[in-house]
From TrEMBL:
Enzyme class: hydrolase
Subcellular location: Cell envelope; Secreted
Gene3D superfamilies assigned to the protein according to its UniProt record, in alphabetical order: Invertase/pectin methylesterase inhibitor family protein (1.20.140.40), Single-stranded right-handed beta-helix, Pectin lyase-like (2.160.20.10)
A single GO molecular function term of this UniProt record: enzyme inhibitor activity
Keyword check for Mitochondrion: no
This protein's UniProt keywords: Aspartyl esterase, Cell wall biogenesis/degradation, Disulfide bond, Glycoprotein, Hydrolase, Secreted, Signal
Residues annotated as signal peptide: 1-25
Source organism, top-level taxon: Eukaryota
Pfam (any one): Pectinesterase
Protein name: pectinesterase
Pathway info: Glycan metabolism; pectin degradation; 2-dehydro-3-deoxy-D-gluconate from pectin: step 1/5
InterPro entries according to UniProt: Invertase/methylesterase_inhib (IPR035513), Pectin_lyas_fold (IPR012334), Pectin_lyase_fold/virulence (IPR011050), Pectinesterase_cat (IPR000070), Pectinesterase_inhib_dom (IPR006501)
Amino acid sequence: MATTRSKLIFPILVLIFFEFSASLAELSPDILISPETACSLTRYPDYCKSMLPSNSRATMYDYGRFCIDHSISLSRKFLSLINSHLQHSSKLSNPEIQALTDCQFLAELNIDFLITSSNATSNVNATLPIFQADDIHTLLSAVLTNQQTCMDGLEAVSSTDSLHEPLYNGTKLYSVSLALYAKSWVPKTRNATSLKPRRKQLLFRRAGRRLLQLGMDQVNVSSIVVVSQDGSGDYAAISDAVAAAPNNTDGTTGYFLIYVVAGVYEEYVSIAKYQKYIMMIGDGINQTVITGNRSVADGWTTFNCGTFSK
């Protein structure tokens, strides 16, 4: 009899769990909830609860803003730690200096990205326009990527062990910030009425090459340049096309689109942090390839081995 009862109870518990999960997924960001409820939507709920003010109820918007602002503060403290280490560079090896310099650059980028995110969400208790929502989501995701890149570079140098804990805590905080942002300001659905579909037929290949028609909803393209190694395009090198991108700080004129024709490009492409609204499209996997020969064994840092950086 006990066995039969346990078999009946289990599906009921499972049903309750799924109903609870569904209610969290549909949670309105403008109602007052506890920190525990908000943190249950993140990847690091325990860390999230330890950081948020306890014994209080607030909206998801409030929790999200708190985490983003706290992320800015943590990023600045981490940058100060990096600068402090670099001030004693005479005691460091060249690989250590290179790894720290990479982290310094990445930390500065993170501060810029987080400030932009904070400004976009400040006093906004509603979903953002889809363009802006996607841009901020990209920035907060990039913060996590930058953090991981810094961590990878420091793992090979032992004298920076004191930076590992701040790095791990930063990773958790940035992840929490991203999760709360996504639950608060990103539109849940993309209704046809909320979209401004624009289908543009883009001429990518020139001098008798095929046309590539790319349907791109909601994307405004100001100009298109073609990179091709055979000289049929506007540029033969990707870096030259990037250098030609206009200074477009607010995106009002649209994206500067760089189409890279299939081929193997042996170069290191770096997009400066002030260069914004640049879109790059290739011919697909194993078609458009950017390659190089730098390695950690040759004295390069993990960050500077990448053939493409922003």
